[in-house]
Structure formats: C-alpha cells, structure tokens
Design a protein that fits this description.
The chain has 167 residues and is mostly helical. It is built from 7 helices and no strands. It has helices at residues 3-17, 22-66, 71-76, 79-84, 89-105, 108-128, 142-163.
Length: 167
C-alpha cells in the first residue's frame, strides 16, 4: 500500500475518533441552514423572471408584427405626397395593399426590382401630375419620356405576375 493512501486512512480514522466541539458543530449547522434558505429563495425569483420574460415576449412579438412600416412609404415618402397630387388616403391604402400583395407573390429579388422600378416611375409620374391628379405627359423631356416607356415595359411582366395572368 502506498504511503499516501495509508496516511490518508490513518487521518480519516483519527478524525472520526476526535470529539467535535459543540460551538463548531452549531456554526456549521447554521451555515448549512443559511445556504439552504438562500437556495430556496432563488427558485421563486427565477420562476418570476421566467414568467416575466414569457409575458414580455408574448406582448412584444405581436406589437412588432403590427408596427411594420408601410411599403408605400418606401416609394412615395408619405401619404401627404399623394394627397398633394390629388390622391386620397384611400388610394394610398389601396397602393399599400397592392404592394403587400406584390411582396407575397414575387420573389425577394423580383420584389426589390419591382420597388426600384416603381419608385423611378412614380418620381416621373409625380413630376407630371398636377394638384388635381391629372397627368400632363408633355411636361417630360424626350429622355424622360423614353425612360418612362422603358420603366413601364420592365414593370409589365412583374405586374402581370402580381395580378396572376402570367405563370
């Protein structure tokens, strides 16, 4: 038997035979009781934190879903821009609904292209539309008219896909 193991056994035997002073035993008992109370106190706190986290998530997720920005804002800026050109809040909401439909039917790449082309086209349309909503295409230069036609032709297949006539 190695000397370390033999020494360890002798010390354990001597420790079992030693009398423990009452004061030390009480102090160890109090420390152990204090530890148990702290441990019990942590569990309800953790449960409260977990419950509070679940409630916060349950409230925040639907709120974030409803707080998504309008897609039409990306193209027009705000509903005021349309109203200044003879549009109404209802027409703005219809445009928004159409854009939401487009986002659902087009791929991400197609939708990004659609928004970029529509934004360019709407800038031209806003330029030629008066306060009553009447377009005056003669206000466009020859280059702008050509760009207008190109944008319309590029948007046509995407528009057909949104409306469901193209497969």
């Amino acid at each position: 038997m190695p000397i370390e193991k033999q020494l360890r056994e002798e010390l354990l035997q001597a420790g079992k035979e030693m009398p423990i002073p009452l004061e030390v035993e009480k102090r160890v008992h109090r420390t152990y009781q204090h530890f148990l109370q702290q441990k019990k106190g942590r569990q309800p706190l953790m449960k409260k934190r977990l419950l509070a986290s679940i409630v916060a998530v349950a409230i925040l997720i639907p709120t974030a879903a409803l707080a998504t920005p309008y897609l039409a804002v990306e193209i027009f800026g705000s509903s005021k821009a349309i109203m200044e050109r003879g549009g109404t809040q209802q027409s703005y909401n219809e445009i928004e609904a159409f854009l939401q439909e487009a986002k659902g039917k087009l791929t991400d790449e197609e939708f990004t292209e659609y928004v970029a082309l529509t934004k360019q086209l709407m800038q031209l349309k806003l330029k030629i539309t008066d306060e009553n909503g009447v377009p005056h295409e003669d206000k466009l230069t020859a280059e702008e008219q050509e760009l207008y036609q190109q944008l319309a032709s590029k948007l046509s297949p995407l528009f057909e896909k949104i409306k469901g006539s193209a497969k």
